[in-house]
């Protein structure tokens, strides 16, 4: 493979570790806290996780650890969407294992969780590992969205663990995958299997966080990549002064990415889904908010600007949420009948007779492209694939219509020419920022210490992330501590609670205190590209969200 100059240079980068993990491995001891409780539904979770519920939080400290030199066989899975830094989690885990015992083995499960159920593996070697250090992407072993949920899948996972004589499986994934990790840990214990399960918090969406997990990895690099692109577009918009750019940003349900990008780039408008839901705003009201800014800027002859849109927005507009929920049910219950309908026109007519009057009217009023996108397949976890719904185009169309009405009424006298963009995939496989390279390596190394120390049902945790890396606090958090019961596909299921943007939190409040000015004035901020070499204030800054949350 031909290598870019940056890739060669990044091979030489040495990720930073917290002080507790930088010492010789025999000196890394565990400090246990008190037993823990889940965030809610304690009784139900206790009965579902009979063997693994309520374990204590652990922190690494100096001391002796007589288990750390054991020879271990470990399997690692990359689960779900790509996030920059995944390869460094594997590198941290690999280096830890080899430091503990040169005979230890690390297997990569190919193509995500299905690699475990189907026993598709590759043994990771020094040369293979070296090819992927500090690189983006998940191409080292691939990823997938298979959910391990049926009794057959659990049994197959156990079979693979037995065949490979695994002491542990590490699942690198988001909230759903770490829920899976908790269930698998419990299952293995219940079957008397010695295989431990450890999770690692991954997702660019930033929605796997709580009191103990300050950030999911990949968020830092993804938001910095998007912010660079948004800043470039802002500068183009400010130069040409003729376009409004509507930019949809990935992030699934939560608006953490959009909010962070807004803090980094100061666009004219950034919609926050959680606020739209809290204020029960209709689609029309969202469009009115955009038009207000367009009209005010037009009065100053500024017929250009930038609007950021979180990809999950449509799911948070109450009327759309209701429509999507009804569609989910109707399409799931009558799947065969629905799939047999030959055209979109037939599907619409059929749905019209099944949807409530309100949802049916809304569905009929949507542009055909958007209506079609609402009917696309759900992902294996039952989520609507919001990244495939062209919300930016929907909003451009509705804004054009509304502005035409305002012009007719003599309330607007500007020009509106809009362009739509979607930033998502371009941020998921970037070379990890120094922050993500260090954070991921530390998460992987922590996973090794948790495994060697015999723990299961934990998520690797590295905290105090706004401090320099040597001051980070590494350890593990019991997965059951982050769980509650939620309604999923018609029944109550144990899940890790997804973290949405908190409207009372400092990141949102900071944004809200400034957005009035940004909507009218041109206050753009240009963060530029991620820098890997140079002064720490340019290269090693954590996200604004992390800084404001601390
Ligand atoms: P994860 O939750 O698996 O980390 O996925 C992140 C994400 O990039 C979302 O932001 C986006 O909605 C989704 O994946 C897109 O999925 P796909 O890669 O299957 O198109």
From TrEMBL:
The UniProt record lists the keyword Plastid: no
One Pfam family per UniProt: PFK
Extent of the signal sequence: none
Known regulation of activity: Non-allosteric.
Residues that bind substrate: 203-205, 242-243, 250-252, 311, 425-428
Cited InterPro entries: ATP_PFK, PfpB_PPi_PFK, Phosphofructokinase_dom, PKF_sf
Subcellular location: Cytoplasm
Catalytic reactions of this protein: beta-D-fructose 6-phosphate + diphosphate = beta-D-fructose 1,6-bisphosphate + phosphate + H(+)
Keywords: Cytoplasm, Glycolysis, Kinase, Magnesium, Metal-binding, Transferase
GO CC terms in record: cytosol
Residues that hold Mg(2+) according to the record: 175
Site residues, Important for catalytic activity and substrate specificity: 176
Family: Belongs to the phosphofructokinase type A (PFKA) family. PPi-dependent PFK group II subfamily. Clade 'Long' sub-subfamily.
Name of protein: Pyrophosphate--fructose 6-phosphate 1-phosphotransferase
Gene coding for it: pfp
């Amino acid at each position: 493979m031909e290598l870019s100059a940056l890739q060669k240079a990044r091979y030489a980068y040495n990720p930073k570790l917290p002080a507790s993990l930088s010492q010789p491995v025999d000196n890394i001891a565990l400090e246990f806290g008190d037993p823990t409780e889940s965030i809610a539904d304690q009784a139900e979770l206790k009965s579902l996780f009979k063997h693994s519920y309520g374990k204590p939080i652990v922190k690494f400290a100096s001391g002796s650890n007589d288990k750390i030199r054991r020879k271990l066989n470990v399997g690692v899975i990359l689960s779900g969407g790509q996030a920059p830094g995944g390869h460094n989690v594997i590198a941290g885990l690999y280096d830890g294992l080899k430091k503990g015992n040169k005979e230890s083995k690390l297997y990569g499960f190919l193509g995500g969780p299905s690699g475990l159920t189907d026993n598709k593996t590759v043994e990771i070697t020094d040369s293979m590992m070296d090819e992927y250090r500090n690189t983006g992407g998940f191409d080292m072993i691939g990823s997938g969205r298979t959910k391990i949920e049926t009794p057959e899948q659990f049994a197959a996972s156990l079979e693979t663990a037995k065949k490979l004589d695994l002491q542990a499986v590490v699942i690198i994934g988001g909230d759903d995958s770490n829920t899976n990790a908790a269930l698998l840990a419990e299952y293995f214990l219940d079957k008397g299997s010695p295989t431990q399960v450890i999770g690692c918090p991954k997702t660019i969406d930033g929605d796997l966080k709580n009191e103990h997990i300050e950030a999911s990895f990949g968020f830092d690099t993804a938001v910095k990549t998007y912010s660079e692109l948004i800043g470039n577009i802002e500068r183009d918009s400010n130069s040409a002064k003729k376009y409004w750019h509507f930019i949809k940003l990935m992030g699934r349900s939560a608006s953490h990415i959009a909010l962070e990008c807004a803090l980094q780039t100061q666009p004219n408008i950034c919609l926050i889904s959680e606020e739209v839901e809290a204020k029960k705003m209709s689609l029309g009201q969202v469009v009115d908010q955009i038009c207000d800014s367009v009209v005010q800027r037009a009065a100053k002859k500024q017929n250009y600007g930038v609007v950021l849109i979180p990809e999950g927005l449509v799911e948070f507009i109450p009327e759309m949420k209701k429509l999507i929920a009804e569609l989910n049910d109707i399409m799931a219950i009558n799947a065969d009948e629905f799939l047999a309908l030959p055209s979109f026109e037939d599907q619409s007519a059929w749905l019209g007779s099944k949807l409530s009057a309100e949802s049916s009217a809304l569905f009929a009023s949507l542009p055909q492209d958007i209506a079609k996108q609402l009917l696309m397949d759900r992902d294996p976890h039952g989520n609507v694939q919001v990244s495939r719904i062209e919300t930016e185009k929907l909003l451009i169309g509705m804004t054009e219509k509304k502005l035409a009405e305002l012009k007719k009424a003599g309330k607007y006298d500007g020009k509106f020419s809009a362009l739509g963009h979607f930033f998502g995939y371009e941020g998921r496989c970037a070379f990890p920022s120094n922050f993500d390279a260090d954070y991921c390596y530390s998460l992987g190394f922590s996973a090794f210490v948790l495994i060697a120390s015999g723990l299961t049902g934990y998520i690797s945790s590295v905290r105090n992330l706004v401090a320099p890396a040597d001051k980070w606090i590494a350890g593990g958090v019991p997965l059951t501590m982050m769980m509650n019961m939620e309604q999923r596909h018609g029944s109550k299921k144990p899940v890790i609670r997804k973290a949405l943007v908190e409207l009372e939190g400092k990141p949102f409040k900071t944004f809200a205190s400034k957005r009035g000015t940004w909507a009218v004035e041109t206050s753009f901020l240009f963060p530029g590209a991620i820098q890997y070499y140079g002064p720490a204030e340019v290269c090693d800054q954590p996200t604004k969200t992390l800084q404001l949350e601390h």
